[in-house]
C-alpha cells in the first residue's frame, strides 16, 4: 500500500497501524524531516519515492518551464 503525503501526522498514523509500505513525498521529506526518523523507527523496510517541486503548493503550477 502506498501513501502520497507530505504530512507527518498522516504518515505516522499509517506507520503506527502498519497500513503502508511505500511513501510518496513530493517534498522529498523537506517539508518535515522527522518523516525520515519515522522511517527508521520501525523494524520494517519502506520503499520511498522522493519527488521535487518548484516553489510551494500555491505557486508550483505556475513554475513549469525549465531552461534545460
UniProtKB/TrEMBL annotation:
Biological-process GO terms, alphabetical: tetrahydrofolate biosynthetic process
Gene3D superfamilies: Dihydropteroate synthase-like
InterPro entries: DHP_synth-like, Dihydropteroate_synth-like_sf, Pterin-binding_dom
PROSITE patterns for this protein: PTERIN_BINDING
Keyword terms of this UniProt record: Kinase, Transferase
Pfam families named among the record's database cross-references: Pterin_bind
Domain Pterin-binding: 1-68
GO molecular function: dihydropteroate synthase activity; kinase activity
Signal peptide (from-to): none
Cellular component annotations (GO), alphabetically ordered: mitochondrial envelope
Entry superkingdom: Eukaryota
Stated name of the protein: Hydroxymethyldihydropterin pyrophosphokinase-dihydropteroate synthase
Lineage, top ranks: Eukaryota, Sar, Alveolata, Apicomplexa, Aconoidasida
Amino acid at each position: 500500500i502506498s501513501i502520497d503525503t507530505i504530512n507527518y501526522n498522516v504518515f505516522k498514523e499509517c506507520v503506527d497501524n502498519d497500513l503502508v509500505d511505500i511513501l510518496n513525498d513530493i517534498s522529498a521529506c523537506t517539508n518535515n524531516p522527522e518523516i525520515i526518523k519515522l522511517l527508521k523507527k520501525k523494524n520494517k523496510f519502506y520503499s520511498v519515492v522522493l519527488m521535487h517541486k518548484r516553489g510551494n503548493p500555491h505557486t508550483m503550477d505556475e513554475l513549469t518551464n525549465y531552461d534545460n
